[in-house]
Amino acid sequence: xxxxxxxxxxxxxxxxxxxxxxxxxxxxxxxxxxxxxxxxxxxxxxxxxxxxxxxxxxxxxxxxxxxxxxxxxxxxxxxxxxxxxxxxxxxxxxxxxxxxxxxxxxxxxxxxxxxxxxxxxxxxxxxxxxxxxxxxxxxxxxxxxxxxxxxxxxxxxxxxxxxxxxxxxxxxxxxxxxxxxxxxxxxxxxxxxxxxxxxxxxxxxxxxxxxxxxxxxxxxxxxxxxxxxxxxxxxxxxxxxxxxxxxxxxxxxxxxxxxxxxxxxxxxxxxxxxxxxxxxxxxxxxxxxxxxxxxxxxxxxxxxxxxxxxxxxxxxxxxxxxxxxxxxxxxxxxxxxxxxxxxxxxxxxxxxxxxxxxxxxxxxxxxxxxxxxxxxxxxxxxxxxxxxxxxxxxxxxxxxxxxxxxxxxxxxxxxxxxxxxxxxxxxxxxxxxxxxxxxxxxxxxxxxxxxxxxxxxxxxxxxxxxxxxxxxxxxxxxxxxxxxxxxxxxxxxxxxxxxxxxxxxxxxxxxxxxxxxxxxxxxxxxxxxxxxxxxxxxxxxxxxxxxxxxxxxxxxxxxxxxxxxxxxxxxxxxxxxxxxxxxxxxxxxxxxxxxxxxxxxxxxxxxxxxxxxxxxxxxxxxxxxxxxxxxxxxxxxxxxxxxxxxxxxxxxxxxxxxxxxxxxxxxxxxxxxxxxxxxxxxxxxxxxxxxxxxxxxx
Amino acid sequence: xxxxxxxxxxxxxxxxxxxxxxxxxxxxxxxxxxxxxxxxxxxxxxxxxxxxxxxxxxxxxxxxxxxxxxxxxxxxxxxxxxxxxxxxxxxxxxxxxxxxxxxxxxxxxxxxxxxxxxxxxxxxxxxxxxxxxxxxxxxxxxxxxxxxxxxxxxxxxxxxxxxxxxxxxxxxxxxxxxxxxxxxxxxxxxxxxxxxxxxxxxxxxxxxxxxxxxxxxxxxxxxxxxxxxxxxxxxxxxxxxxxxxxxxxxxxxxxxxxxxxxxxxxxxxxxxxxxxxxxxxxxxxxxxxxxxxxxxxxxxxxxxxxxxxxxxxxxxxxxxxxxxxxxxxxxxxxxxxxxxxxxxxxxxxxxxxxxxxxxxxxxxxxxxxxxxxxxxxxxxxxxxxxxxxxxxxxxxxxxxxxxxxxxxxxxxxxxxxxxxxxxxxxxxxxxxxxxxxxxxxxxxxxxxxxxxxxxxxxxxxxxxxxxxxxxxxxxxxxxxxxxxxxxxxxxxxxxxxxxxxxxxxxxxxxxxxxxxxxxxxxxxxxxxxxxxxxxxxxxxxxxxxxxxxxxxxxxxxxxxxxxxxxxxxxxxxxxxxxxxxxxxxxxxxxxxxxxxxxxxxxxxxxxxxxxxxxxxxxxxxxxxxxxxxxxxxxxxxxxxxxxxxxxxxxxxxxxxxxxxxxxxxxxxxxxxxxxxxxxxxxxxxxxxxxxxxxxxxx
Lengths: 698, 698
What we know:
Pfam family, one (chains A, B): CoA_binding_2
Number of strands of chain A: 31
Oligomer: homodimer
Keywords (chains A, B): Ligase
CATH architecture of the largest domain in chain A: 3-Layer(aba) Sandwich
Low-confidence stretches of chain A: 1-5
InterPro entries (chains A, B): ATP_grasp_subdomain_1, CoA-bd, NAD(P)-bd_dom_sf, Succ_CoA_lig_flav_dom, Succinyl-CoA_synth-like
Organism (chains A, B): Pollutimonas harenae
Strand order of the largest sheet of chain A: 9-8-11-10-12-13-14
Domain CoA-binding (chains A, B): 11-106
Largest sheet of chain A: 7 strands, mixed
Radius of gyration of chain A: 31 Å
Structural class of chain A: alpha/beta
CATH topology of the largest domain in chain A: Rossmann fold
CATH class of the largest domain in chain A: Alpha Beta
């Protein structure tokens, strides 16, 4: 078997391309790529393969793949059914580097199709032939003119080379994303669809386009995440280059997952794990292709927000209100302008206008066409102004919109801060877009794009210095096979690996339990210890606050009777001091076959599943990152202390969870799940400690 | 003082209109209404008033209002400053019925302007002259051609009479809403802006347009809700006619409220109360003008959803996934098609296509242009199909879009069920709109419009039969002045008015406390009783589970010491049986100066303020309505019983809250607040009972 290279230049910049099933008709699938490549100036060699015609679209043809004068870098396979399989085999035999299999009827139609696809792919791999597809709409690179795609969308909206790369599992979505970007006037260089992904994946192509220095933003459409290592690598390349990756991952809901399964046979991903994976790797998520395009329009600006405070300028007071509401929903703040800015504004604005933010410049815009520019200049240096929204709900006759656009564009260039316009009137939108200023149809769209930019900026500048390079803890499991560890063994394992755990002893009988109680010198908890009993409290096998000989005696008798009635094996009783914390939190880990260990933390107690208030992250992460997530939970105010209660030791809990994340990472592939609930959190200074835990091996 | 009529025909259908400050230039504020009225066929008499010119725009002028040959129905006042005030006075003297004061510089610029406005309005009222404005963009009725508005928007997008009425406090927003509606091809009859609302309000005009039989939908833009009685009356007219009212109420967030205050001096409304008011009166809420227009496009269809299950049909599998996700977010379900439907689908679709919903008709659409129509026909009678989304992310060359549109339109007419299209390509959108089918740019927009229709339909068919006509309970307050009632008095008052309350006794000393304990025969709670101590537990003045003489003795001694240290007046101790429920819930009421009593209910306990999980409604409402709201709370699963726990007596709690809503209504204007927390909810069959309460008089 030949080694497979991760360099995919021959896909994006092939020196020569064969088209198997080449057609003279530019509207046929086998004709369109030829038509496109001639139109968009492909400079390499074209080898149309067609046994019936000497020429197609004025290009000489060859009758078979075998008859080609050289092994081309790339072959487009556009013949149906088993002919496609034969063509791929022929390409493999000739030494072609890659084949884009446009033909459908493979894994997407059922098990038989999948078997044919798998066999074809295996043979190709053996010959060192990479496959895109099958069932792919193809790849298009407007930087090189290599348009190995049959999408009709290039006929609907004229291509224009630009800074954007679009990579999609679905051909329809690749075309739609291209379309909505071009509709916004954004230039697109790459538009690639991977179809059934028998070999080359979206992640592979993401790495490939990131090697193109002209690419300044990468947009992905995914229905199933499998190739996480490659995607993580692409994300790291993107981070180093400062190129945002924004992804739509469809199939978020159960209904969506079902639809995806019947669309591409996509395997379900747990959506919270997907989200955690994206955040971990700094990939921004968008809801749908339209949002993707809205984000892209802002992100291709050479602008960076230094914070999340927005200045709103409008010629309508009502729009100031709507924009303020939308900023709030998006999690942005209304910047409080400095006195100097307000003073400068007062010299620019009419007497009646307010100099607060949002800035209502009123109908005065009709008599002074430079007012937008003057207002922007007046506040340009305000340290609170992280970004700007110009909201123009009404313009037209009497308004010099091209002047507004010119002023906004100059300001954006000068300040380096993000500027977005809200305008629904097409001529107004076009005037701003013509000057390179992003335009949104409503306040909500503008604010959410700006908020996405703030979020992405946070990803890019996340301080991971707290996480040690050797982040994974080397986890040593107790001897023995698979299955669940007892509570005692679970807590011991955590304790041995540096996680704070309540002191405890395993007692075989009443006497040793009494010894333990006397030794602790405080009321104790007494719990039956058995790996077979994950939910002890539901069976009355947990006794709290025992502080007399009699009470300990009674508890053991009663639990013994219960255990005998249930006929379960048990090791004895765990005796631990009853140490009340302020809040019950939790920490857990689930091993995901795609994402590996996925850590959950947040509010603990009995009702974690019924009313979850938790965050999900991929390990490892720092205590600081835990704090950022805790701030978004409903329990956050309670951790601060409300109604005269003291504050909890959140820092200690965050450190425990961060340490646990290193444990979780170290357990990769060996532990199925860890559930620490509760983690008691004491008063500030008292710390946090695991009280109960359950560990399941794979 | 002349009686003010609520009939505003002279505003919407005036027989004669004076224009004070009439201009020969159609681009001036005083010229544009004349230009519009001639253009749009106004049939009444026009009286331009201009002392300088014998004619404007070919119309004879009069030098003064006093010189007019008759008192016109309506005068448009378009002269600046104090001249406007004089003109209004002249109109009042002549007996004009209404004046639209376009002139600005009144309450919106400060206290001086407000004083002038108030004086002018007072004099007008005395003469029976109604005022729209000042600072109004004017009123426009394309049904009569009475375009008493200077908006430039009618020049930007050609007017077309239609079923929609737009009424807005802000002139800019009235124009924008008109614009986005017309951009979607929707005809607009009324476009009215009320400006400073010195007299005529948005609610007044809502009643007026609802008298127009051609109006089939009313859209409102509000920054402040004051005139709630008139709006409630308009809502009732709308309900009777089956006309939806959809409102944007801006100023939802704190930032938005601040912006609104500086825009129109709008008074803040508590947004949860606004929402409750809208729901109570069946007014649907939209986020912004764009959403308003999206809803309107669907609502003007003659279609009614019988449920919330949607069928998705697309030529892209990926769109099926995105649409399913969007349906889930919007709270809609994916309809499960009947076997008969699936069988019919299998005869229409290709072998490989799935016959499940969402229905991916694949690229087969390219070879069969009637496929959309055939698929719709196949599932038309499916009882699970409440509404339909056709999602077309890619069309163009090779697709017969006009056929799709024709088929969709016929289907929509035939079925009477809502049909919405998702298409971003302008020619595709236009083809469907031309046939009257609503079109959305993405799945989220389509699904949220459909969900809004389901919600509105629920408003219209809400079963209020459970609520008795004499819904308000006649509340009798104890004698005495204002301020807070003690816990005992609070609970007694509730109990006297039919609300279930825990038994309790006020005990003056240890002996009577012991008597009470012996009488209940169970452990008791002992709480200091004082109107001066609303938060007793924070001061250690609540003792739980006392079940010995000693314990009761100790508790009273200790509380007595605390009370003496705090130097507060107290009445003694409340002794009540400790009766544990399953869940702590709450119910409360706050008197709002605008909305009257506003009821809050949901999860109770100490942390209601810190982590609220409550619903807000205006009284009165039924137990069934309470249940609907409870289902949306986070605590809902816990009320059902999780982890082997029994279910709570939710029905009893819902009945208690419904009864409390009648009490709250009966307390209107006399109680400032009621806080019942906790309301204990027992096992199913055990009931629900108030345990602690605090009532504050106005």
